[in-house]
Amino acid sequence: MLSRPGLALYLAPREFPFILIGGVIGALGVWLAAPMAATAVTAFLVAFQVKAEILTQPRS
Description:
The protein is α+β, with helices and mostly antiparallel strands and 60 residues long. 47% of the residues lie in helices and 23% in strands. It has helices spanning 16-31, 36-47; strands at residues 7-13, 48-54. Strands 1-2 form a two-stranded antiparallel ribbon. The mean pLDDT is 81.
């Protein structure tokens, strides 16, 4: 995902148990021969908190 003017993306790691669960999901996907793209996206969304905000006025 690419950022554009008027769109702010915030990424923050979650607490340790969520990071650990994300890593386990990634490893389980490789072990079970699941599609790597689906496994990587799921593990990322579990391990990180992603917020998108549409800005009405550009920040300076």
